[in-house]
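U., I forgot to send this yesterday:
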Amino acid sequence: MPKLKTKSGAKKRFKITGTGKVKHAQSGKRHGMIKRTNKQIRDHRGMRVLFKTDGDNIKKYFLPNG
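Result:
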């Protein structure tokens, strides 16, 4: 059986923490900031942790070696 490759798009979008959780950046921060409230812009800063089931799917299908 061949080795599983990591999806290169997932490499750029997700990181795995030391405890095995999956971190991702908030969406909606690339353009169109003038439409969004200051509260939205503040709340979308930094990284967030995915829910457990979503993180498990990411690790299984997109980051098999992560």
